[in-house]
């Protein structure tokens, strides 16, 4: 309170007032949720429906097609949650990477001066953007992947990798003794590259001299670990899949459900990302391009150094939404039998235990958490690349 | 996901709103609405499947019709709600349906912790396997390493795991949402084996591209008593559904069919038949229904033997033998307490 004002009652102070009403609102909200919660619990109890999270430690007793962590029927429902969650993260993560790559490529291609490339990109966007995602998933799964041969007639590449209707069978690397040195070399190389890059940037800022960053980074990150690998006597063997009984045994399997879902999600989301990229690039005034060209920069450098960085301001918010959509859309997995969180946890587990409220609440929280994480990260990135007004 | 979420929201809302209110009984609700809301499967030949015109048929559908005939006097006043295995219990708990007749196995967990009551058994089943003839497999014990197509959220998933574990075999479960998707995946060769309750396996087989190319293996690896389910806590409605089923079985035992029920009603002097048809005894009083409740069931839908034969038995493409589902007096275990 300023000294100049007359003595005032505290309830006439705007600051206290707004605080007061906010406290009241929060209290009312809390009361509302408490009311709903206790009522629901009481009614569940009255109707003889069991509640609580105790079911998570019960034995699950059903099989799951793909799991990134050890799992079999003897694990608990808590584990099925984890298995489903990781499968969701796998397909979303890969989907985001692929969709971003395809989306940026197509978005830039659509603005190309080459008539054919621009039109092809346009056709791709218009076609895949306008077909419902579920249909696309069905298309890839039932039409495309189902035309693959049966296990006995698998397509093969040099008898080490096989492709059939049950999936793609690849040799699995078995890490021998000393392989950890290779991994550590790789990690060190990455760290070193980051430092060298900083130094190179500083040097360029100070002296204007450019540094052949790419070659050095390549040598460090790829060459050095390879060198160590061979120096140690190639401590790596491969487990090659073999046809035995009904199917291939050993090696790594990429199940067709994952492939279909991943392709559909990436191809579909990429169309929206492409449009975001196109709008972002178009939003950069042509004068910028002309100015950059006038400086004698090569076309690709103009794009990389002048246009894209400015376009990112427009692209990022839309990109964030598309990432969120992709993660949520991955729950359509259940239609083709990919064991994601919704299929495994909100599906089978829910039905085996009947604990609908707890399970759906957990599932919803997971999606909420993933979405908030992505949008948090993207907002941070957005802030970082925002134009700094000088 | 969407459907489940909505059903869940509905459950929560019902549970919240119903706090402190006395619940209206399901029977009164059905009669006021003038239609029974009956949950059935999304499409399983012989049990519940809709034709091109949207008319439902099957042994489960006929049980729904019988409930409507008993409660409303008209077997056609039904709204069928097709549900997949994952949605069915939530739909019943939330009041979206009045009764669930959808090949649901009666188990301890479901009967005791989901707020549900099983009213009896309309089909005694067991889990079986179907494989492609080309594989040359003769027994389920040769299935080590097989990929198995299966519908999600069923007891089948658990039995399968138990069976393979007991016999030290490995398998890959490929899990789908609906019967259709499961059968399509098997048809396309995504898996070697399709497993489900044996009756369902026979039903799905009729919808394959080449039904003759698939064989059902002899092993039955579980007990699957399938029956209608209602919500717990409404005893009057529980009784109605339970006795609807009993009346159909009883009618078969006394030889009362949809064809001869009128004649029996006029001429029969068997006390048991007269009690069943509401001419003597307590009639519909205890159930809160008209005295002719059982007559309406038999007249409009038929007795248990009739619905079995026309939907899954000799008169259907499935051609399943009566087996366990024959009357107790004919070598089966279908047995109804007396209507008296």
From TrEMBL, chain A:
One of its GO terms (molecular function) is transmembrane transporter activity. Residues 85-378 form the ABC transmembrane type-1 domain. It is a multi-pass membrane protein. InterPro entries: AA_ABC_transptr_permease_3TM, ArtM/GltK/GlnP/TcyL/YhdX-like, MetI-like, MetI-like_sf. PROSITE patterns: ABC_TM1. It holds the Pfam family BPD_transp_1. One of its GO terms (cellular component) is ATP-binding cassette (ABC) transporter complex. Keywords: Amino-acid transport, Cell membrane, Membrane, Transmembrane, Transmembrane helix, Transport. SUPFAM superfamilies: MetI-like. It is found in: Cell inner membrane; Cell membrane. The chain crosses the membrane at residues 20-37, 49-69, 81-109, 121-143, 178-196, 216-238, 258-277, 359-381. GO terms for biological process: amino acid transport. The keyword Metal-binding does not apply. Coiled coil: none annotated. Belongs to the binding-protein-dependent transport system permease family. HisMQ subfamily. NCBIfam families: HEQRo_perm_3TM. PANTHER family: AMINO-ACID ABC TRANSPORTER PERMEASE PROTEIN YHDX-RELATED (PTHR30614:SF37), MEMBRANE COMPONENT OF AMINO ACID ABC TRANSPORTER (PTHR30614). This is Amino acid ABC transporter membrane protein 1, PAAT family. It comes from Desulfocapsa sulfexigens (strain DSM 10523 / SB164P1).
TrEMBL record, chain B:
The keyword Lipid metabolism does not apply. The keyword Transcription does not apply. PANTHER family: AMINO ACID ABC TRANSPORTER PERMEASE, AMINO-ACID ABC TRANSPORTER-BINDING PROTEIN YHDW-RELATED. Keywords: Signal, Transport. The lineage of its organism: Bacteria, Pseudomonadati, Thermodesulfobacteriota, Desulfobulbia, Desulfobulbales. Residues 1-24 form the signal peptide. Residues 35-264 form the Solute-binding protein family 3/N-terminal domain. GO terms for biological process: amino acid transport. Pfam families: SBP_bac_3 (PF00497). This is Amino acid ABC transporter substrate-binding protein, PAAT family. Belongs to the bacterial solute-binding protein 3 family.
